Amino acid sequence: MLKFLDIYPSIDIVSGYAMVSQTAIKITQGKHYNKAQVDNKILGTPVEVVNRWQNAGAKYVHMVDLDAAAGKGDNYQSIKEAVVKANAQVQICGGIRDDETLSRALNLGCQRVNIGTAALENVAWCEKVLMEYGDKIAIALDVKQIEGQYYLTSRGWNIINKMLWPVLERLNKIGCQRYVVTDVDRGGMLSSPNFDLLQQVCNKTASPIIAGGGVASLDDIKKLSTMRRQGIEGVILGQALHIGLINLPNALLATKSHDIE
In a structure prediction context, what are the per-residue pLDDT tens digits for the chain, which is 261 residues long? Predict the structure, then answer.
C-alpha cells in the first residue's frame, strides 16, 4: 500500500525570522518594505514556528534559508537552534553549494538536505554527494516557464539557468533519489500548483517528488494525493498555511481522504 501524502509546512527564514512565504521571497528578490510592513509578516523565530507546526501535528517541516539561497549571508544559527529542538523531521534548503555548507547542514541532524543551484553550477560535486549521501540529498528543481518552455532558476530564483528536461535526464543518470519541484511563478501566489509540470516530471523520473509552489486549498492537497501512484510523495505548504487559508490538521486529514491502495 502507498503511504499517505507527506505534508511539509514551510519555514521561510530571512534575517533570523520566519516570515510569510510571499513576503520572504520578495524581500530576497530585492523588494523593499518598511519596518511596519515586515513586522506584520513575521511569524516568529524558527524555533517558535517549528514548535507551532509540530503542535498542530506536523511530522515533517521544510526549512528554507532564503538569505543563503540568494547569496546574502545565512541564518545558520537560527536554523541550528530550531533543528536541535525539533521533534519533526527537518528538510533544509538554501545556499548549500559545497562540502563545507553541506557538512554543516547534515551535522545538524536533519532528515534531508536540498541542493538547488549547485546541481546546475557544479555537476561533478553534485554527483559525488549523491553517491556519498544517497537519500539524504534531494535536488530542488525550481522551474520557470518562458514562452512555453520550462527553465530552471538558481540563486534564490533570481537567475534563469538551463532548460529543465536535459538537466533532469542528467540527474536521473547520476543517481538523484528525490526531487523537490517548484513552479517559481506560483511560489507564495496561492494560484494552485502547476499540475501539468508535476505530471511531466513524474513521467520522466522514477524518483519520488515533493511538490512546492501555489497550494491554495484542501482541494489542491486532495488532487496531489491522487498523484501518489505517479510519484508525488509530499507537498510543501507555505503561504496558504502562513495566512490561515489552510489549517494544518485539516490538511493532514485531506491526505487521508483518498483510497490509494
Answer: 678 999 999 999 999 999 999 898 888 888 888 878 888 999 999 999 999 999 999 999 999 999 998 888 999 999 999 999 899 999 999 999 999 999 999 999 999 999 998 989 898 999 999 999 999 999 999 999 999 999 999 887 778 879 999 999 999 999 999 999 999 998 778 889 999 999 999 999 999 999 998 999 999 999 999 999 999 999 999 999 999 999 999 999 999 865 544
Give Cβ neighbours of residue 39 (< 8 Å, ≥ 6 apart).
none
What dihedral angle (degrees, nearest 10) is formed by the CA atoms of 172, 177, 180, 181? 30
Q: Give the bridge partners for 37, in sequence order.
A: none
Contact 149, 185 (CB under 8 A): no
pTM for the whole thing?
A: 0.93
Intra-chain end-to-end CA distance of the chain, in Å: 5
**Residues paired with 180 in a beta bridge:** 140, 210
- Reading phi first (left if > 0) and then psi (alpha if -120 to 50, else beta), residue 35 is in alpha
Q: How many CA atoms lie within 13 A of 246 on its CB side?
A: 30
Q: Where are the beta strands (DSSP E) in 68-215?
A: 89-93, 112-115, 137-146, 149-154, 159-163, 179-183, 209-212
H-helix or E-strand spanning residue 21: helix 21-28
**Torsion over CA: 93, 97, 100, 106 (sign):** positive
The residues annotated as belonging to the active site are 142
CA atoms in the 13 A half-sphere facing the CB of 200:
15
